[in-house]
């Protein structure tokens, strides 16, 4: 378990002086709205309790150096040399963000260099957005330290650009927005076209509900493979249907889509159109009937990801089906897919039974032991000290 004091202590140990400040940003769970972000659609994520911390200290020159508890060697670069292809591996995230700040109007020409030390307790490869936590913490720290004055929606775009251009993953704006815009006990209802964001209270605890995360330990990476293929299918579907993005279509257009598209592209498109609808229905249902009533929408979202978008894996499907069979209000995969985590919303007193049932089912199927924990919707990025 890390915290701001640990990040400061590690900075001091490494650089031999105290940091000027410590910032942090959380990972996220997406409650519903998967792969809709890069289709200009709707998402509804919240920040989780696990965070990434960045301790920062000034330098006299114009070098930026990054060290971390999760890699042996520090990486450094002159601010004038920042470029998309100048950094690689884990350093692409923090140094990619430093480059991307300039692309969004941050004036780095007079900025002094910085030393950074990064610690994190966001699990990597679990579909809980460790990358956005890192990008968002660094973006906020550098923006505030250098006085660049970029607002949080712009910092989310900075993190996304770093991920797209420097890391090389063609991801949308969901994860960075969740990390930067969330507040305690709430989720962010984001329109990824207008970037209008509304923070909506979830009231899980007040309603006697617990959100369980089941990390299947099947790891994924979005810089390779299926994620880009799904994105390409959506773009091909939109082009064939004569729209600039799938946001311009609604479930009423499904008959026409089926007539025009091949079966696979149609199913990809159907996931996006129905998922946008489910996000809107979830927000409405929360307002009208509370969180105990959103379960069928979570279940339907999972079925759509499994059957139409085909981004789940057998471990995830087993976790979801077991939670559902043991009384969860609703359950679904969260995140980009091809591994990662499932979430289950359930009555507080069902937590031990559902946890046991999922563990037993995994053992029975000879799957790796999952890591199962409860999660509280938490605060977004902030300065800690
Ligand atoms: C990953 C991406 F980074 C997000 O942009 C989003 O597309 C998500 O997968 C799927 O909803 O987390």
From TrEMBL:
UniProtKB keywords: ATP-binding, Carbohydrate metabolism, Cytoplasm, Galactose metabolism, Kinase, Magnesium, Metal-binding, Nucleotide-binding, Transferase
SUPFAM superfamilies reported for this sequence: GHMP Kinase, C-terminal domain, Ribosomal protein S5 domain 2-like
A Gene Ontology molecular function term of the record: ATP binding
PROSITE patterns: GALACTOKINASE (PS00106), GHMP_KINASES_ATP (PS00627)
GO biological process annotation, one example: galactose metabolic process
Matching InterPro entries: Galactokinase (IPR000705), Galactokinase_CS (IPR019741), GalKase_N (IPR019539), GHMP_kinase_C_dom (IPR013750), GHMP_kinase_C_sf (IPR036554), GHMP_kinase_N_dom (IPR006204), GHMP_knse_ATP-bd_CS (IPR006203), Mevalonate/galactokinase (IPR006206)
Family: Belongs to the GHMP kinase family. GalK subfamily.
NCBIfam families the record matches: gal_kin
Protein's UniProt name: Galactokinase
Gene assigned in the entry: galK
């Amino acid at each position: 378990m890390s915290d701001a004091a640990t990040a400061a202590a590690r900075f001091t140990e490494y650089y031999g002086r105290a940091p000027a400040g410590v910032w942090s940003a959380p990972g996220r769970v997406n409650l519903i709205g998967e792969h809709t972000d890069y289709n200009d659609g709707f998402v509804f994520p919240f920040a989780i309790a696990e965070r990434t911390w960045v301790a920062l200290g000034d330098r006299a020159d114009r070098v930026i150096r990054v060290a971390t508890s999760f890699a042996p060697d520090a990486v450094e670069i002159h601010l004038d040399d920042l470029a998309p292809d100048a950094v690689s591996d884990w350093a692409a995230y923090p140094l990619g963000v430093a480059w991307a700040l300039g692309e969004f109007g941050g004036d780095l020409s007079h900025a002094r260099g910085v030393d950074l030390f990064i610690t994190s307790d966001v699990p990597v490869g679990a579909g809980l957005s460790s990358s956005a936590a890192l990008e968002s913490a660094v973006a906020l720290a550098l923006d505030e330290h250098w006085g660049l004055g970029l607002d949080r929606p712009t910092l989310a775009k900075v993190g996304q650009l770093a991920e797209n251009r420097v890391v090389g993953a063609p991801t949308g704006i969901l994860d960075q927005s969740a990390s930067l815009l969330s507040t305690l006990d709430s989720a962010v209802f984001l329109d990824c076209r207008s970037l209008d964001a509304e923070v909506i209270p979830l009231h899980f605890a007040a309603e006697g509900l617990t959100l369980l995360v089941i990390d299947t330990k099947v790891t994924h990476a979005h810089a390779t493979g299926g994620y880009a293929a799904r994105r390409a299918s959506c773009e091909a579907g939109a082009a064939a249907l004569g729209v600039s993005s799938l946001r311009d279509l609604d479930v009423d257009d499904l008959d026409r889509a089926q007539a025009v598209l091949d079966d696979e592209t149609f199913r990809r498109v159907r996931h996006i159109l129905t998922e946008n609808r489910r996000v809107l229905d979830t927000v409405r249902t929360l307002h009208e009937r509370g969180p105990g009533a959103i379960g069928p929408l979570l279940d339907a979202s999972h079925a759509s990801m499994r059957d139409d978008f085909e981004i789940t894996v057998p471990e995830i499907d087993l976790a979801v089906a077991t939670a559902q069979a043991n009384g969860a209000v609703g359950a679904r995969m969260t995140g980009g897919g091809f591994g990662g985590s499932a979430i289950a919303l359930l009555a507080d007193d069902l937590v031990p039974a559902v946890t046991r049932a999922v563990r037993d089912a995994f053992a029975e199927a000879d799957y790796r032991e999952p890591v199962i924990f409860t999660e509280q919707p938490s605060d977004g990025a902030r300065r800690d000290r």
